[in-house]
Amino acid sequence: MLDVRRLVLLRDLAHLGTIAAVADAHAYTPSAVSQQLAALQREAGVPLLERTGRRVGLTPAGVALVRHAETVLAALESADAALVAARTGLSGTVRIGAFPSAVRTLLPAALVALGREHPALDLMVTELDPTAVPAALRERRLDVALLHDYDVAPVPPDPALDAEPLLTETVYLAVTADTPFDPADPVRATRDADWVMGSPGTLCHTMAVRACQLAGFTPTVRHHADDFTAVLALVAAGQGVALVPQLGAENPPPRVRLVPLPLRRLTRIAYRRGAGRHPAVAACAAALHAATAAHLDGREAPASG
């Protein structure tokens, strides 16, 4: 019988790429991880790992076993959900991850509702970029999280996760009120402007660069900022133009004009595969859906003038 804990290490090696990274994720030493993977290889009876230079990768058998490991881990999540559902009342810690604009706009109402309806739940929120969500869920540092991507920069689904749609947002071009723009192709009209973008490696940065490339140019990035309030303040100060999704574009400074674009940000509620029926996960998802609907009903779209 294969050891599930060793399967988790193999799965994480497939995602993280190095034994050192797996060791950091689990607070093990690299030597301990190597020993556990060697034991798993003996249990399997076939080579699962192969060394290329200084790196250790997976053999075809190792890749196949990782696919089965995802199914096994999802089944265990489902079993845990079924056991929790048999108890009376919800209790325990639920760790929720979300990106900054959702923490500011959607999450507070969801937390209030959860606290009112399930007072025995201990809710813990972590703000993080969606690029960090899959690893945090796999490593059980989060239980539920909001992640997003953009239609111009889609992210492949993670086989370890399940996700359900939450929100589709318009993306706006933010410029100063006196900036001329071409309604037919607003992004291309900014090809000679300075840009304010998220930090390299974030999805917002990737989206903005991709949108400019689709418009036929490479942007000149003058400032990096990951909080959309700061981004809009820089735009208002004449420091550049930016792309801002709907949640981040609420209450813009007076001098900022928001031009709606045919670009969309797609937000989903994510959790470990098989955990969707866990009562606490389901309660969080329901609260997030309700909070999002209430938020959208209670505000107007940003003005484009």
UniProtKB/TrEMBL annotation:
Entry superkingdom: Bacteria
InterPro entries to which the protein is assigned, alphabetical: LysR_HTH_N (IPR000847), LysR_subst-bd (IPR005119), WH-like_DNA-bd_sf (IPR036388), WH_DNA-bd_sf (IPR036390)
A GO CC term attached to the entry: protein-DNA complex
One GO molecular-function entry: DNA-binding transcription factor activity
PROSITE patterns noted in UniProt: HTH_LYSR (PS50931)
Pfam family of the protein (one): HTH_1
Domain HTH lysR-type: 2-59
Annotated CDD domains: PBP2_LTTR_like_6
Keywords, ordered alphabetically: DNA-binding, Transcription, Transcription regulation
PANTHER family reported for this sequence: LYSR SUBSTRATE-BINDING (PTHR30346:SF29), TRANSCRIPTIONAL DUAL REGULATOR HCAR-RELATED (PTHR30346)
Family recorded in the similarity comment: Belongs to the LysR transcriptional regulatory family.
Protein name, as recorded: DNA-binding transcriptional regulator, LysR family
